[in-house]
Amino acid sequence: MTSNESGQGQLFAGAAEADMATKKAGKAGSSQKSPAKKAGSKKRTETAESMAKRQREISVSEFFTKNRHLLGFDSPRKALLTAVKEAVDNSLDACEEARIAPDLEVKIERIGSNEKQFRMIVEDNGPGIVKTQVPHVFGRLLYGSKFHRLRQSRGQQGIGISAAGMYGQLTTGQPVKVRSKAGRRAVPLEFTIRIDTAKNRPEFSDKPIEWDKKHGTEVAIPMEGEYRRGQRSIQEFLKLMAVANPHVNLKFTEPDGTVTEYQRNTNELPHEVEEIKPHPHGVELGILLKMIQESENRTTSAFLQQDFSRVGPTVAKEICEKAGVKPTTNPRRLDAKTVGRLKDAIDDTKIKAPPLSCIAPIGEDLIIKGLKKEVEADVYMAASRKPVVYRGRPFAVEVGIAYGRPGDTLEMTDSGKIVASSNKQKNDELLMGNADEPVRLIRFANRVPLVFQQSACAISKAVINTNWRNYGLQQPRGALPIGPMVIFVHIASVWVPFTSESKEAIAGYDEIMDELKRALMDCGRKLGKHVRKGKKLANEFKKRNYITMYIPHVVEALKDILELDDKEVDKATTNLTDVLERSRKL
Amino acid sequence: MTSNESGQGQLFAGAAEADMATKKAGKAGSSQKSPAKKAGSKKRTETAESMAKRQREISVSEFFTKNRHLLGFDSPRKALLTAVKEAVDNSLDACEEARIAPDLEVKIERIGSNEKQFRMIVEDNGPGIVKTQVPHVFGRLLYGSKFHRLRQSRGQQGIGISAAGMYGQLTTGQPVKVRSKAGRRAVPLEFTIRIDTAKNRPEFSDKPIEWDKKHGTEVAIPMEGEYRRGQRSIQEFLKLMAVANPHVNLKFTEPDGTVTEYQRNTNELPHEVEEIKPHPHGVELGILLKMIQESENRTTSAFLQQDFSRVGPTVAKEICEKAGVKPTTNPRRLDAKTVGRLKDAIDDTKIKAPPLSCIAPIGEDLIIKGLKKEVEADVYMAASRKPVVYRGRPFAVEVGIAYGRPGDTLEMTDSGKIVASSNKQKNDELLMGNADEPVRLIRFANRVPLVFQQSACAISKAVINTNWRNYGLQQPRGALPIGPMVIFVHIASVWVPFTSESKEAIAGYDEIMDELKRALMDCGRKLGKHVRKGKKLANEFKKRNYITMYIPHVVEALKDILELDDKEVDKATTNLTDVLERSRKL
Questions:
Q1: Least Cα separation, residue A499 to chain B (angstroms)
Q2: Region A143-171 average pLDDT
Q3: What pLDDT does B393 receive?
Q4: What number is the average pLDDT over the span A451-465?
Q5: Which neighbouring-strand residues pair with A398?
Q6: What 8-state DSSP symbol labels residue B251?
């Protein structure tokens, strides 16, 4: 017997089948004896049949409603930020894909006098969304264009923005409002969208509106929230977003009307990323079998060349030969065992690394530019590594460092110790801590700041596992190094493996950990030179202080011995100081 | 316009619609000007239409195939353990629900000579699964009986075992085999099941077999894996499972044929848990609206009483009065605003806490019994707190402690310091570390051991945040305490909020963190008494050592002064020792 399910009318089909099963099967299985029976429960004993009655499908919306913390909606405060993040991600992806320099407006406003309810509004100048797609993009989980493509983007799952709407609906009972104008000549439309969570489908209405805009999208989500500034706030998220996206213009309006603007720093958009085909070395047997089923190619050779990247006629021939398969065989005729040999042959064949046009790292210059804009420091440096590959997926790691607080000056304490003394008040917005505090780590994945779950993230683990003592910093065991410093780390990839759907931390795959460590060391070496120079300076300062302290005494002694007059004393002092400065090159 | 989607024939419907949209909409939106245009990309510019073409549904199986690390299948080693865990969870849930004392067999065997391929087999004496349900339970993600019920169980999502099968299929191309006999008179069947990941539906066949068993289920999954012993191994997982489930008999066969048996320690099954209705205080506006839609009750008063727990006629009347709703009004006639008032009225009304029959804590006696069975220690203690409620969901926290290595003896070093010296080799299976190592923390949720992601777990955070110095232990800042000790922590709940689908760590909701801390302190106080007694003993030991050291010298002096003979010297020594022992109560 083979399943004849067609994928139609599936909702709760399981429950219906189970009901039938129960009617047929009667009471078999209820006569079991077991030690438990002695304990003597008065309740009806469950059987396979009574249990089957309750088996049913769980819709993905129901699942995430209950597990909302997986999506970043576990507290009212975090919920607002997560919603902003998802909306901004989508806007930036759409603008860049249409090669439009992004102009965004983010607004958080109170709903009436309710202390706990807010409306989050994000408006962009992107290409808009066509009418038929709007309800699905905003009213359905696991729906989108980015999941099936091998190319860098901020969004990748088709969950985020509809999850934000679902959370809003859950906590306020109110629908999502979306405005969209899909190009100059398109009619602007306003949609009102609710999600039927039991079905994971949108219920919606739309109407034409007046909207003085060439093209773009605006999403407004009412939700229970809590608005605060400071660490892990929307403000901080947007500030970090500006660091990693210097091509973005963004205006942010807070509930009290305060406006912050982030001006674009470069007119250059990130280079356009191209979609690639899977690389043969990343493919698993099950995936290979599925690709063969879905392929339109009728020969094994054509299948290998057309459905994978980096396979030409010669490589295809080599693979076929190793697997003992004729290149002209229809791949669908291969049995599972032969496909297994084909996979082994692929793994055994040297194939060029996948094309790197699918990812767009930021680059050392723009990292430094971005850091300079938002972090005051003495010195900036960056290391952007060449892309590499894990499981057939290209990725690149970049590290930037901003070091030293420009307001700090060197001072000698009574005990002769040199310390950096800060003339600035501690300020959350400075991003950088004091000299005796752990460095500030800012993490990014595909240009999106990661603000939660720092300790669970592969980036943090790599920073902690790097020996910063090599570069002149203090570092307690198993902790971040200490110093007036911001470390910026960015991973750009066609597929970032996050530790949960909320995309807050990166999973520690070995290949990623290794590359993170290399990038940190590259940038660390640059830092080391500077820190050592700084230490040398501090040492000089110390020595000079001692010598300067003794010069008057030396001169006094000379005066007595050589019977110098006051003028000669002044001259001797000047000369000695001069000699000191020349000899120590100060 | 309202969506007329019926939930039928939805697969890729979005893509089809998008195609139509593209044909209609032409090229609007492609004439935009932006700074980016100057950068001059040669590639075709994307528009709302071209982007819409790629929008489509992502099946939940596709999602988890790509994000397999969310399910615990990120490495071959972890994959084997995760699969065992999911199968054992299901078997134990089924046995307990049918009130059968569980007899399980777990077997890991190599497939042929392949170094990397294994078959995982788990067999139980549970009630079996009815024929129509088997393919869905094992061949479909998000399908099951536990998600929609408020009652404690190990499984809760309907993902685990089908995910294991999907991983097996992906890495070996082979299907899952399931045997089931749903009661004494049922025909035993064997199923061969594959998952169509694009549809998230099973493809299967079944046939009757000979199976000498009264009732039960066996699942066999071939998969790529890596078999190792030691920390975070299957062996360790099963050992911990036995600690928290003293009512289980389990036989484990390793690939090399080694057999380990865990014998049941009690004939008492965990008390039978009852399903409860949602508690009104946990309900959110969106959920309330949905419950009203789905309710069969025609008056608001009946709806409140029938669809929630702990609402009787008086409470229902009070809520209705506060909300200004007539108790006889059909709840479906209430507009969203009035339902909002109803929710506020619910929050404003005192309602009895939910019934606690839905959860089954282990209890202090069985925790201690379980620890004694698997951990050798000097002393055992436990604290099982009364269940409490978060978001309308009852949960209970239990802590157990095993302290002191019985093999350790006190010794005085040359410098007069007392140390515990271990006469045992370090042994992974002992579970307990040395006196100078961090304590061993073992975590459980609904009686399932959590073996991964310790640092991300609320339980670990609560242990670290507890001040163990109060109880006589050393504890470095921000770390686990130090000492020869095992801390056992169990959360029993109708819904455990895990940080990912792989159920490896618990999310840190405030209410859970608070209760964890209280339970740890309860047990910590018991520990404190013992540790202090131990310290007093160590001090006595030290003093006695000094005195014993001096007795011969004192006697020698007495001999000279009093001119004692040898016999008298012996007597004096005995007397002095005797006085010492009596005075110090040794």
A1: 6
A2: 88
A3: 84
A4: 92
A5: A384, A490
A6: E
DSSP, collapsed to helix, strand or coil, labels residue B474 as strand
Asked if B197's CB is within 8 angstroms of A3's CB, the reply is no
Counted across chains A and B, CB pairs separated by less than 8 A come out at 366
Taking CA–CA distances from B264, the nearest residue in chain A reads A35
CB of A163 closer than 8 Å to CB of A86:
yes
**Which of A103, A132, A147, A221 is the best residue to mutate to test the B interface, defined by the most B CB atoms within 10 Å of its own CB?**
A132
How far apart are the C-alpha atoms of A301 and A305, rounded to whole Å?
6
CATH number at residue B116: 3.30.565.10
Cβ of A183 and B495 within 8 Å?
no
- How far away is chain B from the Cα of A25, in angstroms, using its nearest Cα? 8
Alpha carbon distance A234, A86 (integer Å)? 12
Cα separation, A151 vs A274, in Å, equals: 6
The total of other beta-carbon atoms located within 10 Å of residue B487's CB is 26
Distance from CA of A455 to the nearest CA of B (A): 8
Of residues B337 and B463, the one with the higher pLDDT is B463
Residue B357 inside a domain? The answer is: no
Residue A470 near residue A423, CB atoms below 8 Å: no
Distance from CA of A42 to the nearest CA of B (A): 10
How large is the angle between the packed helices A336-347 and A285-294, nearest 10 degrees? 110
Q: Which parts of A394-452 fold into alpha helices (H)? A: none
Same domain, A33 and A144: no
Give the residue from chain A lying closest to B22, CA to CA: A130
Rounded Cα gap, residues B239 and A317, in angstroms? 51
Phi, psi of A390 (to 5 degrees): -130, 135
Q: How far is it, in rounded angstroms, from Cα B448 to Cα B320?
A: 42
- Joined together, the tokens standing for residue B103 give 């007899």
Question: Mean pLDDT score of chain A, rounded to an integer?
Answer: 84
Closest residue, chain B, to A187 (C-alpha): B28
b/e string for A140-162 if b means 16 or more Cβ within 10 A? Answer: bbbbbbbbebbbbbbbbbbbbbb
User: Is residue B547 over pLDDT 80?
Assistant: no
> Which tokens sit at B349?
């009304």
| CATH code where residue B314 lies | 1.10.8.50
Contact B130 A267 (CB under 8 A): no
Contact A186 B157 (CB under 8 A): no
Residues B371 and B416 in one domain: yes
Q: Is residue B139 part of a domain?
A: yes
Q: Give the separation between CA B464 and CA B482, rounded to whole angstroms.
A: 11
> What contacts B241, CB < 8 A, 6 or more positions away?
B88, B248, B250, B262, B447, B448, B449
ipTM of this model?
A: 0.77
Other CB atoms closer than 10 Å to residue B443's CB: what's the count?
25
The long-range contacts involving A334-343, CB below 8 angstroms and separated by at least 24 positions, are: A334/A292, A334/A300, A336/A289, A336/B173, A336/B174, A339/A285, A339/A288, A339/A289, A339/A292, A339/B173, A340/A285, A340/B173, A342/A288, A342/A300, A343/A283, A343/A284, A343/A285, A343/A288
Q: Is A522 left (phi over 0), alpha (psi -120 to 50) or beta?
A: alpha
Asked whether residue A396 falls in the same domain as residue A430, the answer is: yes
Q: Same domain, yes or no, for A82 and A140?
A: yes
Yes or no, beta carbons of B130 and A215 under 8 Å apart: no
Domain extent for B564: 534-582
A29 and B455 within 8 Å at the Cβ level: the answer is no
pLDDT of B504 reads: 92
Q: pTM of the predicted model, to two decimals?
A: 0.79
- Under 8 Å between Cβ of B431 and B375: yes
Q: Are residues B98 and B110 in the same domain?
A: yes
Q: Are residues B525 and B540 in the same domain?
A: no
A104 and A143 fall within a common domain: yes
By Cβ distance, the residue of A63, A69, A132 closest to B17 is A132
Dump pLDDT digits (tens) for B264-308.
Answer: 988 889 988 888 898 998 788 888 998 998 899 999 999 999 999
Going by DSSP bridges, is the β-strand pair B440-445/B485-493 parallel, antiparallel, or unpaired?
parallel
